[in-house]
């Protein structure tokens, strides 16, 4: 099957709704453009931009999978996690730039960035991983995975939680806002350095620890050329950026029109639609008993958001003079801490089953209700 489609036909096939029913949601792209540019209805533009991001994120995931099939499973999981988080990076970066260009919106935009980052961590850790364990558990009574890889990711998540707790504690002990921002910026530099060390550890010095121990079906072959896969990835990323720009500029009015807390939109709705790529990929491979890849995507995405994307956005905001900090609020910080703790406990024995997946989903529902009522 390798490289059977070429000359752009594979790219057209990737967008064809006859090949994937989810692509029917791509109709939301022109609808979003209509409500944003012609009808000037921010509420409807926000709704349809969220819907449009879902199939686009899935197409990004498909292109990344095609590229990842030519690499090792460890690098493949890393690529899936990285480009799966491209939606969050684009939304956060656009919101920070909006805060820079319009200081009157700085508070709204920084709150949106913080909420979407926390939501991405919780969404991947509890929702995506929970669905993966549930689906994998229905197909296989007990599944095992590489404990060494999980242990490193769990430790990195706890380090990131520390970087969130300290600014929150500093704030509630009477620390000045400016000092909290400065602390967050320097802590972000430390986290970025640690992420670099973790990549060196995973891909170079201790790569043998991350070799897959689970069964592999060995039947996954690339269905498009490398050039087509990269072209598809770039095209989908550009469309996501366009939809994200509309979404960011309409979120405040949409929250007012719908009577929903902005924090609920940022923590629950944005990651739910933006993480479609992780939802499908991580859950599907868990059903094939490829738990190392499933965990690399779900937990790897959370690690990347916590240890790479969040500090990167703080540094980006620092360069633009926007006061984004790691002080995400007590509820958000507590939710992240408990989420990381629950996942570390559940996966501590190196085995998973469907009940553990349902526990993670229950945690996610409880946290979603708390943000809805906040």
Could you walk me through the main structural features you see in this protein, from its secondary elements to its overall organization?
This protein has 374 residues and is mainly alpha-helical. It has a single domain, classed as A middle domain of Talin 1 (Up-down Bundle). It is built from 14 helices and 2 strands. The protein has helices spanning 9-15, 28-38, 42-68, 73-84, 86-101, 106-139, 147-172, 177-205, 226-258, 262-274, 276-287, 291-320, 330-346, 354-372; strands at 143-144, 351-352. The chain has a two-stranded antiparallel sheet with strand order 1-2. It is globular. The termini are far apart. Mean pLDDT is 83; it is low at 214-219.
Structure summary:
This protein is 76% helix and 1% strand.
Across the major sheet, the strand order is: 1-2
Q: Beta fraction of the residues?
A: under 5%
> How many strands in all?
2
CATH topology, by name, is A middle domain of Talin 1
Number of domains: 1
Question: Could you name the CATH homologous superfamily?
Answer: NCX, central ion-binding region
Question: Any low-confidence stretches, pLDDT <50, length ≥5?
Answer: 214-219
Q: What is the average per-residue confidence, as pLDDT, rounded to a whole number?
A: 83
Computed Rg: 20 Å
The helix/strand order is: HHHHHHEHHHHHHHEH
Note the overall shape. Answer: globular
The biggest sheet amounts to: 2 strands, antiparallel
